[in-house]
Amino acid sequence: MIDILAKRYAKALFFLGQDDGKYRDYGSELDSFSELLKQTGEVGHALVSPFYPREQRHGALLAILEKCSLSPVVSNFVKLLFDKGRLNLLEPIKTAYLGLCDESEGLMRGTLTSAAPLTESQVSAIKGALNIMSGAKVELEVKVDPTIIGGLVARLGDLVVDSSIQTQLKRLSQKLAGAA
């Protein structure tokens, strides 16, 4: 249910951003505001907590928005979320919104995990192969995880390419256990 609501709000803001050509800017602002609320800790929690009077929470939100350099569209969007009691959905809305931005640009984001650091040329070659497999422009977050022992694990949306030695050993172990 939360995901459905978050996607609806994200789509509404995204369509506004597409209309005026500022959808990426709105995504950046949404991301910045979300990070600001995370950093403020208690203040961010107080804004969504019913234990504080609504007027105080509203005043605090307006004070925060006044200090931020948000566009009127994003500022009004955040106020709408507050008014509808949906400010607690800000993080999933932001995630859904940024996903819509990527999708509209034919961009897919994923992770590439290896047991040891990869060279730029290796990462580029893997990106190229994933571009062809997915039919989209691929951006990868590269991670190093020695526990996979060797090989690679690429995750791109629903696509997972796992050639890690760790996974191969698990499969072999399962086969051996099934044969016994």
> How much is the radius of gyration in Å?
21 Å
Shape: elongated
Q: Can you summarize the main beta sheet?
A: 4 strands, mixed
Counting structural domains, the number is: 2
Count the helices. How many? 8
CATH topology of the largest domain: Peroxidase, domain 1
How is the largest sheet built, in terms of strand order? 2-1-3-4
Q: Low-confidence segments, ≥5 residues, pLDDT <50? A: none
CATH superfamily of the largest domain, please? N-terminal domain of the delta subunit of the F1F0-ATP synthase
Percent range for helical residues?
55-70%
Order of helices and strands: HHHHHHEHEEEH
The whole-number mean of residue pLDDT values reads: 93
- CATH architecture grouping of the largest domain: Orthogonal Bundle
DSSP, total strands: 4
Give a verbal description of the structure.
The chain is of the alpha+beta class. The protein folds into 2 domains: 2-103, Peroxidase, domain 1 (Orthogonal Bundle); 107-179, no CATH class. The protein is 64% helix and 14% strand. It has helices spanning 2-20, 23-40, 42-48, 54-67, 72-83, 90-104, 120-134, 165-179, and strands at 107-114, 137-144, 152-156, 159-162. It has a 4-stranded mixed beta sheet with strand order 2-1-3-4. Helix 7 (120-134) links the parallel strand 1 (107-114) and strand 2. The protein is elongated, with a radius of gyration of 21 Å. The chain starts with a helix and ends with a helix. The relative contact order is 0.11. The model has no long low-confidence stretch (mean pLDDT 93).
